Amino acid sequence: MEEIKLNLPTPIETIIVDGVSFFLKRDDLIHPDFSGNKTRKLHYYLQKDFSHIKKLVSYGSNQSNAMYSMSVLAKINGWKFEYYTDHISEFLNKNPHGNYAKALENGMNIVEGKIQDIENKDTLFINEGGRDKEASFGLEIMANEIVDWQVSNNIQELNIFLPSGTGTTALFLQKYCSLLTFNNPLKITVYTTPCVGNSDYLIKQFNELEPNSIYHPNILEPQKKYHFGKLYKELYNIWLKLRKQTSTEFDLLYDPIGWSVLLNNLDIFGRNTLYIHQGGLLGNISMLERYKRKYKDLE
Ligand SMILES: *Cc1c(COP(=O)(O)O)cnc(C)c1O
To answer: Residue 97: CB partners within 8 Å, gap ≥ 6?
Structure first.
């Protein structure tokens, strides 16, 4: 296996949005070939010995950041990568782009339809979006980075905010931050918002990974129901505003919803708030293309 060097700890910067100061953890800079939090979730597979494995199998959306990161993981290990998805549109089939194109370049074998029996000793199965217990390995390391930074910057009470899909990242981050600050004066509260489904869905996801609810992050719902992956001009405008004010590119699927919740709750997030930039920029290629096709007058 090729040696993989992650850029750890990922840097923490200060940014100002609408006149309010936030800390920003740049997990998007963790590795040039992996996507932000998917690298954290897959860290376990980079660290442990999987030399008996010949094939990686997973499933989910055909533009997902997780799919792309898994294709990188398979490639560097010399594994086959088989990925199941519901449907590939005519358009994508004819014009592969974004995560899909890059994953194909890395040798992904994409299969339309339901996942088959995978009872094979040399096959590694990873759940959709990396929603697995193994994700805890990389997120414990991330929690350690944050607590070390908190101590050296003398911040007693810290809020962490990150938008959720499966909720895996937020859950394990809260769990390890709680364990690391247990019995000492530091306090860390992790807040998240559901970008896929609603709070009930997210709580269900949390419970599957960790039954003890004292380790669950706080959930704030968006003011409005957004359907995952759908295009909303107001979300695009938040993304554009962030790029203008911070000179940082955020992801277009999760971050605009995250920031809208954050900026609507400044009573909580007005100070000592750390936002996690979870990467996903390769996914922006297909999102931007769709935005430009739908709204001709975009900046
Ligand atoms: C996957 C992803 C998320 C959601 O992570 P979960 O652990 O599934 O909640 C958020 N932001 C970006 C950019 C992602 O790629």
So the answer is: 285, 286, 289
Q: 70-82 in b/e burial notation, b at 16+ Cβ within 10 A?
A: bbbbbbbbebebb
Same domain, 221 and 82: no
Mean pLDDT of 187-213: 97
The one-letter amino acid at 159: N
C-alpha atoms less than 13 angstroms from C-alpha of 220 in its C-beta half-sphere: 22
Query: How many structural domains are present in the chain?
Result: 2
Cα(191) to centroid(ligand 1), Å = 14
Instruction: Report pTM.
Output: 0.95
The closest residue, in CA terms, to atom 13 on ligand 1 is 280
In a domain, 246, yes or no: yes
d(CA 224, CA 243): 23
**Full residue range of the structural domain in which residue 100 is found:** 39-130
Q: Which DSSP symbol is given to 10?
A: P
Does ligand 1 lie within 6 Å of residue 169's CB atom?
A: yes
pLDDT for 1: 55
On whether both 155 and 124 belong to a single domain, the answer is no
